[in-house]
Amino acid sequence: MTLSVSGLSRTFGGVRAVDEATFSVADGEVHGLIGPNGAGKTTLLNLVSGLLRPTAGKIELDGRRIDGLPPNRVAALGVARTYQNIRLFGGLSAADNVVVGQHLRRRAPFWPRLLFLPSALREERAAQKAAEAGLERVGMRERALTRAHELSYGEQRRVEIARALASQPRLVLLDEPTAGMNPNEAFAVARLVREVAKEGRAVLLIEHNVRLVMELCDRITVLNFGKVIARGTPQEIGKDPAVIAAYLGEGG
Amino acid sequence: MADLFLAYQSLFAFVGINALLALSVYATLCCGQLSLANAGFMALGAYTGALITLRAPSVPFLFVLAAAALVPALVAVPLGLPVLRLRGVFLAIATVGFGEVVRLFFVNWQFTNGAMGLVAIPQRTQLWTIALALAVALFALGRLHGSRTGYALEAIREDETAARTMGIYTTGHKLAMLAAGAALAGLAGGLEAHFTFMVAPNGYGFGRVVEMLVQAVVGGTAAFYGPAVGAAFLTVLPEALREAGARLGLAPGPFRLLLNGAILLAVILYLPNGLVSLPATFRRRARRPA
Predict the structure, then answer these.
(1) Under 8 Å between Cβ of A71 and A49
(2) Topology, domain A1-78+169-252
(3) Left (φ > 0), alpha (ψ -120 to 50) or beta: where does A146 sit?
(4) ipTM confidence score
(5) Which residue among A77, B120, B180, B226 has its CA within the 20 to 30 Å range from the CA of B276?
(6) Is A71 an interface residue toward B (CB < 8 Å)?
(7) Interval B212-219 mean pLDDT
(8) What pLDDT is recorded for position B243?
(9) Which has more pLDDT, B280 or A168?
């Protein structure tokens, strides 16, 4: 099991943003995290990626506790993510954003570069090549040299996904990867997510487009008021009375 | 030509020293940290160098300068651990506080003659020493840009949270750059002390670090050589205009400050990316149809 979350809670003052959440994501699985606004989905991703510390419960990656580790350590163990409100490095080009994403994979000490050694030049060319290939994968190669903040919303989302994949993570956390995209773009992202899972990576994604989630995900966890109210395959979730009640209101 | 060079030797020296100081501010600025401790670091370097030369004149100058760089760098680490948790203006205030502590420490330390400072320091700094130090600093910073660490620093400047989730150890990077900046400021302090024959605490006050910051910003912090350009510009220009100021009946000191202020205002309004963005701005103007 790649990611396993058990009894995870996080409170903000009196608010239980995440309340004893338990679920797991396996290798090669696309796992959807859905729920109404304010259900605690983003808080959950922030807990897994180390940006927040849990109040209680544990998070394990390949059987190793990662709760309480700082985000850079969590990332070093193979977790990459994107953000709901895109956090690209706005002043850097799309390609440079992806180069930064390779930080953990690159083994490039400073002194060979200082001395213009060929090994350093080769390593840098390889990093640039890999960044171009990463952008190609999200259909952004021709925008490689454009500064991130000049890209459109949908383009920024795609560059952010490329940046996350650049570290070759074991687990990818995607916070609303298709928000603000047209159906064609969203479909392309969904296809990419499937490919990523096929490489054996685990994907945990938050998504509001119900049709997309149902088609894309292997399993789904539904949150409401911080609590897991349902877990299962898309078919099971679609029929679950608690989920229908949460989305359409009681008696809907 | 040779006469001209001799006549302006000290001007060139101050261009170099100020360039090192502006680069020392850039070292933290390039990863998004506004640290104003560098006048304090400069004082530590200057006093360290001066004390070694006065007490142990046989120590080679290279070692004196190494100590002048090393002592502030070592002080920067315990300073940085707590203060680099602060962001933006809070970091600026905390580091200004550090600078004042250093200045007041030397004002009150009898061993270094308090506010009078140390005098009659032998002149050991040559123009080429300064030029060499500046060249090494520029080369190292230039090579840093585009390296894995350089990318990490840019990422921290753009979005520290996102940088951390990319696996970048932000605390370590910020601390290293604070120490590197401290070393540069200390080196400049050591060079200056052995060029002007004296060190006194009031030469390292708040005004000094503002001067470094202004030079860095006027030159432009988007390119590693920007701060050096800004330092050269703001050091040479008042000298070049000294005559004009005197003719207007302005005292040289206040005139210099007035000019610095006016230039800073003009640069921030019309060239927010500094003097080094001037060529690009012209190119853009030329391309745009009138």
Answers:
(1) yes
(2) Rossmann fold (3.40.50)
(3) beta
(4) 0.93
(5) B180
(6) yes
(7) 94
(8) 74
(9) A168
